[in-house]
Design goal:
Layout lengths: L1 H12 L1 H22 L4 H33 L1
């Protein structure tokens, strides 16, 4: 049973990979957009920060779920 708990917790932590990739892609696209339209930098930066915060929250939720799986099922 403890092996299954460890596997489940490991899978839950993989949400951090998705968040990292998502933030990287969003940052690259924001840099491209600012290069094309420098006058829209404030709006682009605001949208980028909001998106990065939401993506990072997803990673934190995955980490919390992994901890809960270990604590309550392990």
């Amino acid at each position: 049973m403890s092996t299954m708990v460890a596997i489940g917790a490991g899978i839950a932590v993989f949400t951090g990979i998705g968040a990292g990739v998502g933030i990287g892609i969003a940052t690259a696209k924001a840099a491209e957009a600012i290069a094309k339209q420098p006058e829209a930098e404030a709006k682009i930066s605001k949208a980028l920060l909001l998106g990065a915060a939401l993506a990072e929250a997803t990673a934190i939720y995955g980490f919390v779920i992994a901890l809960l799986v270990i604590l309550f099922l392990g």
